[in-house]
Predict the structure.
Amino acid sequence: MPTFQPAQLESFAAKLLQAGGASAEEAAVVAASLVDANLKGYDSHGVMRIPYYVQAIKEGEVAPGEQLQVLDEGPSRIVADGNWGFGQVQAIRLIKLLAAKAHDAGLALGTMTHSGHIGRLGEYCEKTAADGLVSMLMVNSHGAAVRMAPPGGKAPRLSTNPLAIGVPHVDGPLVLDFSTSATAEGKVRVKKIAGQPCPEGWLIDNEGRPTCDPATLYGNPPGAILPMGGAQAYKGFGLGLMVEILTGALSGGVCARPVPYPKKGNCVFMLLIDPARFGGADHFRGEVSQLADYIRSCPRIDGCEEILLPGDPERRLAAKRIKDGISLDAENWNALVKLGQTLNVAAPAVA
C-alpha cells in the first residue's frame, strides 16, 4: 500500500483542491481536515473525498469563496446559512462564533443549512475541547442522500446521520463520534473503490437480503445500510431519526423526503457548553478525571490488555501514523493520481 508522511499528503491534497477551484485558504483548511481524518483512522472522511469535492465544485454543489451568512442570532444562538461553501471552512467559522457566545453565556446553540460536507465531526469536538468547552454535533445529508433502512424495511429512508460529543480531559479529550447506521457511507465507498467486500452486518440489497457487495448501495434501486445496534437496531434508527429532526427541521433546512433535495450537503446542529458557567471548571475537570480513572481501573477479562475510552484509539493511531506514515489502498490512491493528472498536479513519490 502506498504510504506518505502527513505533511506530504496534506500538500498534495491542498494542491488538488486549489487546482479544482478552491481558494488557497479553503484548500489549506480542507486538506488539513482530510489528512487529520486519515491520521485518526477515519479514512472514509480522508483524502479519498477529494475527487468527490472537486466534482462537486464542477457541478455547482460546492461554491468556493462563499462566506458564512448569519441569518439570526441571540446571546446564545446562531442561525446560519453556509451558502454551499466548503463544509469544513463554514463549520470552523460557525464554531468560532459559537465558542465566543458559549464563554459569555454559558452555552451556545448553532444551526447551519446549505453546507458542503463538513467532514469528521470529532475534529470539531477536539477543537472545542481544547478551548475548555463541551460540544455536541450532528448532521444529516440535507435531505439529499438516504442510505439507512428502518428495522424491517428494505429501502433507505435516512442518511447515516452521525453524532459526536466531546469533553475536555487532562489526558486528551473524550470524543464519541459515530454514525447512527451500522457504518458510515464513506466506508462503503472506500470498499467499493478498492474492490473489496464489506463486512457482514453492514448492508442489505434492494430485496432486504444481507449482502457484502458495496455496489448494491449505489444500485438502481439501491440497497441500504442497516441501523447501528445489530439486534437492537431500532435504537440506532431511532437515534438517527432524532438527528434528522434536530439537523434538518430545527435548522430551517431539509429532512429526508420522497424526492431528494437537488444538492448533497449537510444541515448542521452544534451545541457548545462552558462548564465554568455551570458546576465550575475545576469541579468539571476533577469529576471527569476521577471518572476516567475509575473506569480504566475496572478489572479486565482474559485477553483484554486495557480499558479504552472514547478518543484513545484515535490518539494512538494518529501517533503511529505520524511516525510511520499514512497508507492508502491502491485504488483510492490511483483515483487521486488520476485526478492530479487531469488537473496537472504531480503526485508525490510513493515511499
Observations:
- The two ends are 9 Å apart (CA to CA).
- The chain has ten helices and twelve strands.
- Residues 64-182+226-297 form a domain with the Ribosomal Protein S8; Chain: A, domain 1 fold (CATH 3.30.1370.60).
- The mean pLDDT is 96.
